[in-house]
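Morning. Coffee machine broken again, so started the prediction first thing and wrote up yesterday's gels while waiting. Chain of 272 residues, entered below exactly as on the submission form.
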Amino acid sequence: MIKVNFYLKNFSIDSFAATPVSNPPLEYQKEYDYTLAEEDITLVFNQLIKLNKEFGIKIDSIQTIPLCFIPEEIRINNFNLFKRPCNTGKSTLAIDYKGNVRSCIQSPYNIGNILESDFEALWRDFEDFRQNKNLPEDCIECDALVLCNGGCRFNGYNLGEPLNRKDPRMKEKIKLDIKKVVQKEAGFNNKYILNKSTKYRKETEEFYTFINSDYNLLFVNENFKNFIVKLEGLGSFNPKILLKHYSDNNVKDKLKKLFDKLISKNFLKPYV
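Came back before lunch.
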């Protein structure tokens, strides 16, 4: 901790992020096992948490690790660490110095070259990522999908095709009570305002992507897009009171889930 104090004092460090890289292809794993064990992951997260609690440093990690692999105590009590799932092919791409385009830096395949092809055409080639068609079947109905996107697609791919192969660290579907976690963080009954950094873009004729300054993403249809846009015009609001205006229980349940996601992904900020 003496070293931590030294760096804080001399380099004005106020934030720290740690994100694991993907495993190398199988042919490079003959002599060594590059997969981090659960105790290794736990150790790193505990150190990040300590930096935050003892030194006030903002901590962050892009979730390339399936949430089911992370001990429950850590993922529930430190929810802010798990708000940035890997969005390769959904909102981000990798372009190397020659202009070659890949879904991410871990991908071994070039889709095309931005110096030779139209960017919109290249972007359309990643539609399977945005439609979650590359996810393992076990992830599709998992409650944690919105937070981890099934882990790293190339951790599984490097062990053999196809892209929807399970990340080797996956355990099983988990029942994550998003509402309980969100209430622990802020309280569903509080007043909120829409995060000023919130932006959106049209992906297809029916779907839109929302993004904020924390690089959190939310994919919604046009009806939900219009609902979120209207929230900005309300100023401060209480989600629970807004829901009382809807008599259809099916609609109300869908809006509850939407509010849970908006709060957990920091699209809504507590109104002070």
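The beta strands are 15-17, 58-60, 94-95, 100-102, 112-113, 192-194, 199-202, 207-211, 217-221, 268-270. Going to sketch it on the whiteboard this afternoon.
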